[in-house]
Write a structure and sequence with these properties.
The complex is a heterodimer of chains A (110) and B (217). Chain A is of the alpha/beta class and 110 residues long. Chain A has four helices and five strands, in the order E-H-E-H-E-H-E-E-H. Helices cover 30% and strands 27% of the residues of chain A. The radius of gyration of chain A is 15 Å and the shape is globular. Chain B has a six-stranded parallel sheet, sandwiched between helices. Classes of the chains: A alpha/beta (110), B alpha/beta (217).
């Protein structure tokens, strides 16, 4: 199984600790974590994690993460979680190469 | 272990519940005996396991944490309830205390504080998160200020009129400010004096000054 490199952005310590304990797995590498969203952009660009787990808050989707998602450099998956509900939000950037026109339909169909 | 604290977690958020279980189980003196998704299940598990502490969320589907706390305290007063919530509002805070909760901590707290709170409540003591303790003190001081500690309860309108009298407003001025008739002001003033056991306007002003409702001259 591919090892997933995870970066965690959190607000509440309980979120951070829960994530740390729940993600204890041989195929998960915790590459970094930060509490301050404004300070993580450069670090994430440098580390290029496969997955960014972020704590959803009332402030909504962090604009900086949208920039990262739109970056052309690497495939990354964003997972949003909150202490207030059981929703899990997934955002993914995935590069594919079109060989034939029919590939578009295949990509849509998954 | 003799001093093992047996904890039941009641929270509808799966990640929170599981994270809490893992967090608490790492402590040698704490054991998580059950997990409930709502208030009804918390009641059932409280009856089955009879925990020392129920770590209780407030907002849950079906029976919420407030009602579950009331029922648990009514049936098993020896079980302690520690509220763990996102809510900072004083309304929830005071309602949970009235329901019998022994502690109140926010989900935004440091996890070390959370573990400490479980131990404190498990020992039979009270734990209040600092911001909530401030709220309680403020409310207490407010009740003393308004003379409610001795069983006297003033209505919001009476408090307003007492403040205006203390500031030197005349009956006519108070009536104009509050858009009520002068006779209504008279009635409120009369009720104030009866409730507070005072005889005249001068004593009303003195009362207000002694309780810091108006500054000393």
């Amino acid at each position: 199984m591919t090892v997933r490199r995870v970066f965690v952005i959190w607000k509440n310590p309980l979120f951070y600790e829960s994530a740390r304990l729940l993600l204890k797995h041989p195929d998960v590498v915790w590459v970094g974590a930060a509490q301050d969203m404004s300070a993580v952009h450069e670090e994430i660009l440098k580390l290029q994690p496969d997955t960014i787990l972020f704590e959803r808050t009332a402030a909504g989707f962090p604009a900086d993460l949208m920039d990262i998602l739109q970056a052309e450099t690497w495939d990354v998956r964003l997972i949003g979680l909150s202490l207030e509900d059981n929703k899990i939000n997934l955002f993914q950037r995935e590069h594919q190469t079109v060989v034939e026109a029919g590939d578009l339909l295949q990509f849509v169909l998954g | 272990m003799n001093n093992l604290i047996r904890v039941l977690i009641a929270d509808d958020h799966t990640i929170v519940r599981t994270g809490l279980r893992l967090l608490l189980k790492a402590e040698a003196d704490i054991d998580v005996v059950g997990e409930a998704l709502d208030g009804s299940e918390a009641l059932k598990l409280a009856e089955t396991y009879h925990p020392d502490v129920v770590l209780m969320d407030i907002a849950m589907p079906g029976m919420d944490g407030l009602e579950a706390t009331r029922q648990i305290k009514a049936r098993w007063p020896e079980i302690k309830v520690l509220v763990l919530t996102m809510h900072r509002s004083d309304e929830y805070f005071f309602e949970m205390l009235k329901a019998g909760a022994s502690g109140y901590i926010l989900k935004g707290a440091e996890t070390s504080d959370l573990i400490h709170a479980v131990r404190v409540v498990g020992r039979g003591e009270v734990f209040l998160y600092p911001t909530m303790a401030q709220m309680l003190v403020k409310d207490y001081l407010n009740s003393i200020q308004w003379g409610e500690g001795s069983g006297t309860s003033l209505s919001p309108r009476e408090k307003e009129i007492l403040r205006l009298i203390s500031e030197g407003s005349s009956t006519k001025e108070i009536a104009e400010k509050l858009v009520i008739s002068p006779s209504t002001v008279h009635t409120h003033r009369s009720n104030l004096m009866t409730k507070l056991g005072l005889n005249n306007r001068r004593e009303l002003i003195q009362y207000a000054r002694q309780r810091g409702l108006i500054p000393d001259k």
